[in-house]
Structures are given as structure tokens and as C-alpha cells.
Amino acid sequence: MRVFKFGGASVKDADAVKNVVNVLQEVGYNDTLVVISAMGKMTNAMEKVVESYFNDKDEVNASIQEVIDYHNGILSELFQNPNHPVYTKVKGLFEEVKGFLAWNKSPKYGFVYDQVVCYGELLSTTIVSAYLNEVGVSNTWLDVRTLIKTDNSYRDAQVQWERTQEEVVSRVDVSKLNITQGFLGSDDNNFTTTLGREGSDYSAAILAYCLNAESVTIWKDVPGVLNADPRNFENAQLLDKISYREAIELAFYGASVIHPKTLQPLQRKEIPLKVKSFVNPKDKGTTVGKGNGIEPKVPCFIVKKNQVLLKLSSLDFSFIVENNISEIFKLFHDHRLKVDLIQNSAISFSVCLDNKFRGLPPLLDELKRKFKVVCHEDVSLYTIRHFNDESVKSLQNGKSVLVEQRGKETVQLVVK
């Protein structure tokens, strides 16, 4: 049994759906479980429906109509017969969304979010499964919510592994081609839950773990995992192999490789993860698995932009030690600022933060009561794994370096 995962870009329109068929025909699809995300940017569109529901109910119908029109456009290109049963199924899914929003009494954003946003995946898999059957690729559609069981931590649900294992083993016929959703699960009351960041990749890993799969393949619009994001760095190079440990290290520093929570269940059973191109499916791509480091061993460049650098020092020249630092970190947690780099001396403390939740202004107000604070906004944090002198010089060239920190394998620079 193999597990394939196709993301939103791989099913964003009718041509993309047809390409999924091409990929399956080229690489084979017997004994395969296919996990599919919402089409294109439909998760964002479904989030807009939720926002309208809470903030501007007059806009709810218009927000839903955008989603309906998008999917109907894809349907009309894939199915020439307007009486094809898939039209009724898709219409029924939209009626379910509208019905939920009409009778829902819960004021909890996370609960409503999961009950609504899930329809992105339900719609995409319904359409793809029907199209595969239409062109002679017989498959079984599975509702992943009957397979992956979780707690009720809506938007970031935790997997109940024993129950999930039982459901997957009893419900999945491994001799067939199966189509199911990423990102979703269900709680003890059978309400839909979502798995948080990188949830579809994680879904593929969960199912692979439960099925003892031979491999997981994530199909993307890039040739594999590169040593740098080509949008930010020139001459990005394909990595042929990455160890589980190295992939987790790269992800920790911010590389868009694979989220650690996806790797953890695969590592436990040593199931290899492949990242391949859906444009050129026969190309080798990248394999993440058991081993050491990366091949080829080249510097890997990572950048996090729009960061904040804080330099704190004590007002009375006293030491910044454990009690100060624990208080500072509690403030970071309370204001939802993620720490990406730390550097300290006896009387000063520098930290690079991700301010994506916009908690900086109230944080600064509290810090200034006890510390001298210097704040640099809109800085970039560069990380180089497996650095050499040439790679460091290439980043320093023409930049103002505010902080530099080196380890055995990694160098980090905060630059303005």
C-alpha cells in the first residue's frame, strides 16, 4: 500500500484534475490511498464564509456563492452531461453548509470553522473521485472523518491513535484505489475537526502509519525539496535525500520542507517520504528517510522576513538571569510572539520574534516597565545549514548585520 497526497495546486482547475489522472496512470495506482486537499485557494474561500458568518451575515450568501461558482466551473469542464450524478452530490454538499449555518447555535469560532471549512476537502474529493470513475479509473471514495479520530480541540485537533488505527484497518480495502480527504478528522460526537497547519500532509502520514504503508509521496509543483526557496535565492539546487532528523532541523528553522508533525509518525515506522513533481512524475524527486544529513551536502538557505529584533537590558545593570528570562518568555507566550533566535550576555538579552499575531505593541508596553528596550521591526532572519565561508559572505554582502550566531552546522544572521 502506498499513500499519495495531492495539494490544492494539483487540483486547482479542470486541467489540473485531468493531470492527476495522468500522474496515476504513469506511476500506477493499484493498492494506493490518495489524500486530496481543497481545490486551489478554496480553504481561504471557506474561511471567508466563516468570517462573514461571524462579522457580516449579509455577506454569507455571497461568500458561499463564490465557492459554488468556482466548483461548478470545474464541474462543467469535466462532465459534459449536466445530469451526471456528481452535480447532485456537489449540490447536496452545499446544501449541508447552508443548513449548518442556518441551525447552528454555537458561538465558538473554532467549532464553526471546522464544520464549514471541511467542505473544501469534501467537495474536491467528490469531484476528483467521480472524474476518475468517469475516465475508467475505478476508485472508492472514503470519508476520512470516519477514519481519523481526534479530541475536540477544534482547528488543532490531537489524534487518538488507537481508535484511528482500528478504524483505518477495518474500513480501508488496501487492494483498491481509495480517495479521501486531508486535514480532517472527527471527535467523539462525530463533529468534524481539523488538524491544523500542514494538516493534509499530516493526514497522509497518519494513514500511512496505520496501514504500514511502503511509502508516502507528496505531489507538488516543484521537482522536490530544494536547498533554498527559488523566490528568494538564485541557483536553488535539488536535494536527492534528506534524513528525518535533517528535515526536522530544516523545518524548525523555517524551511518549507515538511512539518515535523508529518515526519514523526513516518519516522517511528521508518516509512520513506517522497516529494515529487506532478508535472514530471517520473523524475526522482527527493526522498526523506532513514540516514544521515543530506545528499548532496550543500548549504541550505532559509529566510524569515518581517521579523522583530528586541534588545533588552536591565535598567540598573543587574544581571539578566533565570527569573528575568522566565518572566520575559511568559510575556512572549501571553502575546503570542514566537521566538526564533536568542542571544544573551550578563546584562542584555536579544531575541528575534515572529509577530504574525500582532502582539508586539502591548508586549513593548509591558517590557518597558522593567527593561531598556531597543526594537528593530521589519528585519530578516537568515539561516544557513551546513554553511561555509562563501555562503555566509553571500548573505552578508550589502546588508547590515544586527546579530550573528554560529553553531557547528548552522549560522543565523539577523539583518536590516
How many DSSP-defined strands?
Answer: 17
Percent of residues in helices:
25-40%
Q: Sketch the major β-sheet.
A: 9 strands, mixed
Query: What coarse outline follows from CA principal-axis ratios?
Result: globular
How many helices? 13
Q: Which band does the percent of strand residues land in? A: 15-25%
Give the strand order, joined by hyphens, for the main sheet.
3-4-2-1-7-9-10-8-11
Order of helices and strands: EHEHHHHHEHEEEHEEHHEEEEHEEHEHEE
Tell me the radius of gyration. Answer: 24 Å
Integer average pLDDT: 95
Secondary structural class: alpha/beta
Gap between N and C termini: 49 Å
Low-confidence stretches: none
Keywords: Amino-acid biosynthesis, ATP-binding, Kinase, Nucleotide-binding, Transferase
InterPro entries: AceGlu_kinase-like_sf (IPR036393), ACT-like_dom_sf (IPR045865), Asp/Glu/Uridylate_kinase (IPR001048), Asp_kin_monofn (IPR005260), Asp_kinase (IPR001341), AsparK_Bifunc_asparK/hSer_DH (IPR042199)
Domain Aspartate/glutamate/uridylate kinase: 2-276
GO molecular function: aspartate kinase activity
